[in-house]
């Protein structure tokens, strides 16, 4: 008979998420996960099957606890005309806070897209679905802001906003000012387009 689990799975996943987010899948060692979670290798493997199983759980927690709460105002009805601006301003603030993991490490999934694990088909689909979810949410915000514009014009603005947000996530680790500038570009686009 196996031993009863004596830890809270969600807490372990959150602790592992921080390690994967800062270091990436490949650079995250099992000893680093042990230190972060307080569990030994056998407990981690028993609970999650492998380092990859723990990574998959961390990615799901990232989507559920980080990404979707921030996108929620853009996907509930009704979406107000300023919600997309509020999203970008909030993201900009997070990237400017030196103590935030977003400023330190950008986006877990954007980072993952540039790492070797992105060759895995499941990871590739997860990253692509995340980008599509981001684009859809921003598209709803752009539609609410510019409802009087034709669909092609709104799609162009939403595509540009998405590209600039992804760019900010991708560059914040190496060029924080450039990342903030990309988000300022989104805000400028949203203001210029509204006049």
Automatic annotation (TrEMBL):
Domain of life, per lineage: Bacteria
> Where in the numbering of this chain does the HTH tetR-type domain appear?
6-66
**Keyword check for Transcription:** yes
Tell me which PROSITE patterns the record gives: HTH_TETR_2 (PS50977)
Which Pfam families does the annotation name? Answer: TetR_N
Which GO molecular function annotations are given, in alphabetical order?
A: DNA binding
Under SUPFAM superfamilies, the record lists: Homeodomain-like
Q: What PANTHER family does UniProt report for this protein, alphabetically?
A: HTH-TYPE TRANSCRIPTIONAL REGULATOR YJDC, TRANSCRIPTIONAL REGULATORY PROTEIN
Protein's organism: Isoptericola sediminis
Q: Is Oxidoreductase a UniProt keyword of this protein?
A: no
UniProt keyword list: DNA-binding, Transcription, Transcription regulation
Tell me what this protein is called.
Answer: TetR/AcrR family transcriptional regulator
**Feature: DNA-binding region:** 29-48
